[in-house]
Amino acid sequence: MASGQGAVVTAAVLIIGDEILSGRTQDTNLRDIARYLGVHGVDVSEVRIVPDVIEEIAGALNQLRAKYDYVVTTGGIGPTHDDITADAVAAAFGVELYEDPGIIAEMQGKWEVTPARRRMARIPAGGGLVRNPVQGPPGFTIGNVFVLAGVPSIMRGMLQDVGHRLKGGAVTLSRTVRVAGSGEGVIAAPLETVAKAHPTMSLGSYPFFAPGCFGSNLVLRSRDAAELEATVRELIAALKAAGITDVAEVAEEA
Amino acid sequence: MASGQGAVVTAAVLIIGDEILSGRTQDTNLRDIARYLGVHGVDVSEVRIVPDVIEEIAGALNQLRAKYDYVVTTGGIGPTHDDITADAVAAAFGVELYEDPGIIAEMQGKWEVTPARRRMARIPAGGGLVRNPVQGPPGFTIGNVFVLAGVPSIMRGMLQDVGHRLKGGAVTLSRTVRVAGSGEGVIAAPLETVAKAHPTMSLGSYPFFAPGCFGSNLVLRSRDAAELEATVRELIAALKAAGITDVAEVAEEA
After folding, report:
1. Given this model, what pLDDT does residue A6 score?
2. Which end of chain B is more exposed for a tag (fewer CB within 10 A), N or C?
3. Of the candidates A25, A27, A114, which has its C-beta nearest B185's C-beta?
């Protein structure tokens, strides 16, 4: 597991829930998590989406936490019978769940503590809490795993208590060069020439098609700001030398 | 691998691309694929998102195609150097890529056949084509794997040539009961009672929070229409018996 400035620090995201797999609900948490971790110098390198089945969650979690520096999970930490993420995480780590008295005490000030709500105070032994500034009980963390809610607004709130615990590496910087009116079949050759000259950089081509407009966003990524700057200039020059005229750097989306 | 009416037929979706992992692009293909396969009696049971790295793609593909009846991949079949899905699929199956003369012939009628565009005619030996009614060259299929484009409009077009090749099982039906004004902490007990009485059914609770309104969508899923109907009625009765009054079945989202 790499860490420290300059190193590549990686994470996996494990999204838990039948409702994402069925296509009923559109996941948006990955995008928020990936951008948040990116700013903290952690690259999301793999994502898995698994059903509400303890063995599937625990199996995926054990593979991912061994392979990547961090794992962030979302979903399955509510009070209903299908919320089994705590059980699955405990099974993956081979530890018991305990009822956190602080969570129970905080609940008692707000709600009737039903057996269902009591489920949400169960934390794997050896774990710590992740603050929930939105509503409801906290998430938790154990080892290199952060266990967050699935509801996007709550997930984003919990994420704010994750960043300061990460040992991020160098932040991956990105720049986008937009080509309009030329397809990938024309862009490919100059793009490949530049990519081959910079083997440590990531250069991707993402075509777009809209009525009356087509082209491709060429995204350059690097942890080295100087090389990134030089490569952007080199790419624009190579595209223009290949006769592609409608080329411009564009701002990254927010 | 199960198949035939009544059996459970499963699929995995393998999404290929750094731009999804970085949070730059919001994936929407999963939702379209899951709904399309669902109508054809195939349940998406796992999703992985991997970077543009041949070994990662091939490794994930070999795990998924062994575990599930079908695998659908999206992304990485364009003409640029970062489009390496065909190479990865060939590596996973241990076969060579060949250049399909039909694809080249079709290209020649439309574009200059550059070396980059020629890359898109490479098909793993033993594979067949997946028609592309939108634009550009076809996708392909090999074994139980369908390899589709990443651009959503093109992916959806290619998907129309997938359904008739699937041996689907019984279609999973779903119904939604919406509870407003009661949180999951209150809903959980009656929901669990009903869930335990119907162990072969899937009952999930998906809370929502909006200004002035909160509650949960309770989604019931089954391959048995009669049991599904009976369980919807039983769940509504159980919620009302628990003092929860704002309960109604709502139409599934389109």
Report:
1. 59
2. C
3. A114
Helix then strand then coil, in percent of chain A rounded to 5, is 35, 25, 35
Amino acid at B15: I
Torsion angle, CA of A81/A23/B162/B130, rounded to 10 degrees? -130
**For residues B198 and A81, what is the distance between their CA atoms, to the nearest angstrom?**
13
In 3D space, the residue among B245, B243, B239, B253 whose CA is nearest the CA of residue B203 turns out to be B239
Domain architecture of chain A: domains with CATH:
10-165 (3.40.980.10), 173-250 (3.30.70.600)
Mutate to test the interface with B, among A10, A61, A82 (most CBs of B within 10 A): A82
Tens-digit pLDDT profile for residues A159-211: 999 999 999 888 989 999 999 999 888 999 999 999 999 998 989 998 888 77
| % of chain B beyond a pLDDT of 90 | 83
Q: Residue B52 is nearest to which of A135, A153, A204, comparing CB atoms?
A: A204
Half-sphere exposure of B227 (CA within 13 A, CB side): 16
Determine which of A143-157, B3-17, B93-107, B121-135 has the lowest per-residue pLDDT on average: B3-17
Closest by alpha carbon to A248, among A184, A186, A176? A176
* Tokens of residue B31, six digits: 């939702």
Q: Which residues pair with B220 in a beta bridge?
A: B175, B203
Of A21, A74, A117, A182, which to mutate for an interface test with B (greatest number of B Cβ within 10 Å)? A21
Chain A CB contacts of B187 below 8 Å: 80, 116
Average pLDDT of span B243-253: 88
Q: Are A120 and A136 within 8 A, CB to CB?
A: yes
A152-159 and A29-39 are packed helices; what angle lies between their axes, rounded to 10 degrees? 10
Least confident span in A60-69, A225-234, B204-213, B235-244: B204-213
Q: Give the minimum alpha-carbon distance from B83 to chain A in angstroms, rounded to a whole number.
A: 9
Q: Write down the pLDDT at residue B6.
A: 59
> Cα A103 to chain center, whole Å?
27
How far does A51 lie from chain B, in Å, by closest CA? 7
pLDDT at residue B1 tops 90 = no
Q: Alpha helix (H) ranges present in B44-137?
A: 54-67, 85-93, 101-108, 115-119
Kindly state the tokens that stand for B8.
């459970």
